[in-house]
Amino acid sequence: MSKFFQRLGLLVATVLTGLSASAQTKAPDPPAEIQTLLQKNICLTCHKVNDRLVGPAYVEVANKKNYTPEQIVALIYKPKPENWPGYPPMAALPNVPKDEALKIANWIVSLREAKAPGKAKAPVKKKAPTR
Ligand code: HEC
């Protein structure tokens, strides 16, 4: 029995460590309007906000590339799979209405702040002085 609790403790510790590690970079759920647009335009079939699914997490898109909303709209209509090695190519979605694509794109860009150093609310780990 004590082994069981030992294991349980380990498990809890592991989960907690994982949670606190990801809490720092986790973006909140999209606002209701955006959620609806993502659903309607089937983006959520392949994308999640914080995690890789078929395509990269939106947070990752926002932080890895410094896209403007207009560039993101263009990529929805004409994806460039070469931007994301290791992923299957995204299907072009020319039928997403421009205004909806732009709203989604603005929201994706806004995710960048979730991870931006200095703006993050979570404490930033200090680097050892390099002297
Ligand atoms: C069939 C699956 C699928 C659907 C549906 C889908 N995506 Fe993607 N998306 C991907 C994959 C896979 C990638 C990475 C490879 C690529 O860019 O082709 C990607 C990449 C992206 C990128 C990064 C583009 C770049 O070049 O950096 C954005 C932005 C994006 N998707 C937004 C959207 C939006 C918005 C929607 C809904 C309108 C959507 N995706 C629907 C699979 C999908």
What can you see in these coordinates?
The protein is mainly alpha-helical and 131 residues long. α4 crosses α5 (98-110). 46% of the residues lie in helices and 0% in strands. It has a domain at 27-85 and 98-117: Cytochrome Bc1 Complex, Chain D, domain 2, CATH 1.10.760. The termini are far apart. Residues 41-43, 45-47, 54-56, 61, 65, 72, 75-76, 79-81, 83-84, 87-91, 93, 96, 104, 108 line the site of heme C (HEC).
The 3D shape can be described as extended
The number of helical segments is 5
Q: Biggest β-sheet, characterized?
A: none
Q: From the alpha-carbon coordinates, what is the Rg to the nearest angstrom?
A: 18 Å
Overall mean pLDDT: 84
- Our measurement of the CA-to-CA distance between the termini, rounded to an integer number of angstroms, reads 51 Å
Number of strands: 0
The residue fraction in helices comes out at 40-55%
CATH class of the domain at 27-85 and 98-117: Mainly Alpha
Quick overview:
This protein is an all-alpha fold. The chain contains five helices and no strands. Helix 4 packs across helix 5.
Question: What is this structure's SSE topology?
Answer:
Blueprint: H1 2-23, H2 32-40, H3 58-64, H4 69-77, H5 98-110
Helix pairs in contact: 4-5
